[in-house]
Design brief:
TIM Barrel, binds iron/sulfur cluster, alpha/beta, single chain, 379 residues, globular, 31% helix, 12 strands, 12-stranded mixed β-sheet, 18% strand
Length: 379
């Protein structure tokens, strides 16, 4: 089936959830309000992977709006992305990298998304570009950039014709060496790749020895890495595209060492490098997905013990306002625990590579919950 037709058949109305008996009729109004603020949509491909009789199915929990979202603790913009916005739809936190946000639509919507605010019609923001020509003009002028990340939303929801003009334009720019797409197409709608030979042709045309396209995928659970997803990954690899994966530690979805171990090993075997595994951010209406830093560290450490060498490239990361912080580990001396953190990337370039250690307790979910780390985030 053509991907556009499959996408149109998604489950996307709260009424359907009542009919399917996955939400109670008495919860309908609340779910409708949640859906207004942050839509839900479940592609036919993803719907087939869900065990609808199991309310705890991890894939169901990933995409089903829940009353837990009425808990409004947290931040709309936890990473201070609006402060990194250079112009409408362009963010640059580090001088050589620009994030382009050309679209605020996705194939399905992850309930823990840290960009929920971009989908909320009640929140005014000018963080989406909606026009790839403007993005191309910006990138052409910014000679300090050498890599761009096209994100959103999901940029692969943009029609191939529009992507073609943009990518062929980028191909002419000597200063851009790496083009990254952040996409969940392989998890939610592999037909986006498999039913559109023109997209594969385009990637093949643009991927050159000095101009690499990376697709940073987003699989959180091994059940998402289906044979069809692997087939789509293989088709992309054959065009010269390089594949990696980012995942998020999510309560009741993948906070389990064997689930993560299987995920990371299967990804590596499929040619998709496990890259970053993120601590879940303190996002408004997604608090129920968070677990403490100590728990995250323990699960991740145990998961990595059974990984093959290539899968072991995965890093545990907290994307804080101050930079990208790798969680190196925790030690325990006479019952006193210390967490070790390393700035993998930082707004202040002097901090890159710096290693810190702080006493930590079970109630810390984020850097800002560690009292002794205050000097890093409050200046
Ligand atoms: S695919 Fe990405 S941008 Fe879209 S809802 Fe999921 S995490 Fe957010």
């Amino acid at each position: 089936m053509k991907w556009q037709n499959e996408l149109k058949s998604s489950i996307r109305k709260p009424e359907q959830l009542v009919e399917m008996e996955v939400i109670r009729p008495e919860d309908f109004e609340n779910i409708k309000q949640i859906h207004h603020e942050f839509p839900f949509s479940i592609t036919p491909h993803y719907a087939k992977l869900i065990d609808w009789n199991n309310p705890k199915d991890p894939l169901l929990l990933s995409v089903l709006p829940s009353l837990d979202e009425l808990d409004r603790a947290g931040y709309h913009d936890v990473s201070g992305e609006s402060e990194s916005t250079k112009e409408v739809g362009v963010q640059s936190k580090y001088p050589s990298t620009a994030l382009i946000l050309p679209v605020s639509a996705c194939f399905s919507y992850c309930r823990y998304c840290f960009r929920k605010r971009l989908f909320n019609p009640d929140i005014k923001n000018d963080e989406i570009m909606r026009n790839l020509d403007l993005a191309l003009n910006y990138i052409t002028d910014q000679k300090k950039l050498d890599n761009i990340l096209i994100t959103g939303g999901d940029p692969l929801i943009i029609k191939t014709n529009q992507l073609r003009k943009f990518l062929l334009g980028i191909r002419e720019l000597d200063h851009i060496k790496i083009i990254r797409f952040g996409s969940r197409a392989l998890s939610f709608l592999p037909s986006r790749i498999l039913s559109d030979p023109s997209l594969l042709e385009l990637f093949k045309q643009v991927s050159e020895t000095d101009k690499r396209i990376y697709i940073v995928n987003h699989f959180n659970h091994p059940n998402e890495l289906t044979n069809t997803a692997i087939e789509a990954a293989d088709a992309l690899l054959k065009t010269g595209v390089i594949l990696s994966n980012q995942s998020v530690m999510l309560k009741n979805i993948n906070d389990d060492e064997s689930v993560l171990r299987t995920l990371f090993n299967n990804l590596a075997e499929s040619g998709i490098t496990p890259y970053y595994h993120f601590q879940c951010k303190f996002i408004k209406a997604a608090n129920h997905f968070r677990i403490s830093l100590l728990k995250t560290n323990e699960i991740f450490l145990n998961a990595t013990k059974g990984l093959n060498g290539l899968a072991k490239r995965v890093k545990l990361i907290m994307t804080h306002f101050t930079g990208k912080i790798e969680i190196l580990g925790v030690d325990d001396i006479n019952g006193n625990q210390n967490i070790y953190l390393k700035y993998h990337q930082a707004r202040d370039p002097n901090m890159i590579g710096n290693i810190y250690h702080f006493p930590i307790k079970n109630d810390a979910y984020w850097l800002d919950d560690i009292p002794k780390a205050k000097f890093l985030y409050k200046k």
